Amino acid sequence: MTRFARQIILREIGPSGQAALEASSLVLPGELPPLAREVASAYAQGAGLDVATGVGAKERPAWFPRLHSDSADQVAQGALLALDAIHAALHARTDRESDPA
Questions:
Q1: What is residue 31's DSSP assignment?
Q2: DSSP classification of residue 67
Q3: Are 76 and 67 a contacting pair, CB within 8 Å?
Q4: Cα–Cα distance measured from residue 7 to residue 47, given in angstroms and rounded to the nearest whole number
Q5: What is the pLDDT of residues 11-57, one digit of tens each?
Q6: Closest Cα partner for 97 from 17, 11, 23?
């Protein structure tokens, strides 16, 4: 059983989706708080993405609420970064598969 077998059997991901995830990466902003960095890295690597550290900061989306606890806020921030990267990788895969060219 491969490391990502549970993801591969999901209809929404499948072998082509897993290949797209493994071909993708997440660049973490350099100014990301430590807990957010740890959560984003764990989520992204768990899905199969490569993770690297960049420079600068990522602007917080206007719709993303501030949570009452700094720790909870950092966990949510890290999860959002990883999930955005996972979604982008899978969305790019479906765009390529449906492109008639």
A1: T
A2: P
A3: yes
A4: 8
A5: 999 999 999 999 999 999 888 899 999 999 999 999 999 999 887 77
A6: 17
Q: What pTM did the predictor assign?
A: 0.82
Q: For the chain, list the strands marked E by DSSP.
A: 25-28, 50-53
| Cβ–Cβ under 8 Å, residues 75 and 43 | no
pLDDT tens profile 37-48 = 999 999 999 999
Give 51's strand partners. Answer: 26
Find the Cα–Cα–Cα–Cα dihedral 59, 23, 42, 10, rounded to 10°.
110
Q: CB–CB of 67/73 below 8 Å?
A: yes
As beta bridge partners, residue 28 has: 53
Q: Helices 70-98 and 34-47: crossing angle, nearest 10°?
A: 30
Please check whether residue 64 is in contact with residue 40, taking contact to mean a CB–CB distance below 8 angstroms. Answer: no
